[in-house]
Amino acid sequence: MKRRDFLSRIIGFLIFLISGKLIWDFLSFSLKKRQKLSIPIAQVGTKPSVIDGIIVWRENDTYRVYSSHCTHLGCILKYDEKAGIFKCPCHGSEFSINGVVIHGPARKSLKRLDYIVKKDKIVVNL
Question: Which residues contact 71 (CB under 8 A, 6 or more apart)?
Fold first, then answer.
């Protein structure tokens, strides 16, 4: 076998492996079921709090539900009740009560999460 033929086969095999991996990743992502989280309504107050990795609170007759992960590097946010903002303890990003970036390094607003109310629970789509 010539060196050129050997290298062609090796390159072809590598392309086959890489394309297979890309197809597998795409299919596994596409077929993944959406995860849901149930939170008892009794745990939800009128002030923002982090419950099971999400920020949630009751406002009049509705609920506000956001991801608790900073959009910079994913640290869990803390609510500063005195200032009325969410703060990232890792790199100092700040978000308004509406999830909008006030101070970076984060550039994107917090992800607002869809939910439905079922009996005595809030079911959140993650």
Answer: 93, 101, 106, 107, 108, 109, 110, 111
